[in-house]
Amino acid sequence: MGFSRNISLLALLLFLLGSCSAPAPDDTPKPVSATQQSDDHHRTARYLGNAGVMVQDGDTKLLFDPLFENNFETYQLVPPRIKGALMLGSAPYDDIDVLFISHAHDDHFAADTVLAYLQTFPQVKLVAPKQAVDKLLAAGLSDTAQVFSIDQSPSDLPVLIQAGDIFIEAVTIPHSGGERFAEVRNTVYRVQVAKDLRVLHLGDATIETEPFAVHKVFWGRQINNLVFTPYWLYKNRQRRAALDLYVRPERAIAIHVPTALSDLKNRYGTALDGVDMFTRPGEIRVLDTSPSAGQ
Asked: How many beta carbons lie within 10 A of that of residue 4, not counting itself?
């Protein structure tokens, strides 16, 4: 006890001496990074990897294509730190409302991993094309899971889904790559996150204009406040013009960006200049009325 008391007195003395000699506080504002600023906001988009993003608006949290295992040695994997936090439900990846799957390719969806997640968090609702749901059922998905399975062709009318308080519209847009991926059902989601925030995730949407034109009424029915688009829809002026003509995003963030950014610059020159792209897992964008917020 005497030794502990002496240590305490010594610590107090050192503290008082340090206080007397310490310089006056510096009131000069310190620069704050975009990520640090974003953590103080409650309306954000957070990059996970490849086409994986999390959108948060207050207590509402949505995941898009968050759990996959294959990057084809080209795209960003979800880093172990972020994946671990997702699987444990650690903040900020806690209390997720809805998990969306765009399509069943390995760089967007891993049945075993998604199944493990849904078993850990049975309150999370899953919205996915039937091709992905079938793989989950084969892996052991329970009939009690909260699953919305979308069985839709590119020419079909939009599917409307009410997942709790969240209103969702879905259309199927062909997967990029033409006939090679003709059988893949790539689902585009428009999610009414709030009255002033409608989020679209285009998955691996085709570069062709016609499938977008088919759904012209769908795109124009609502203001598309934020669109997550594969980067290849910005690779040249014609593709960008089609996106602006039909989808008309108020703000767009490119996803599915290869890790070799220098190669993109060499291949496409200035085409991607000025395009907001998610390239580093963990990046955050503040979602407000300013298109440049958080960049």
From this structure: 8
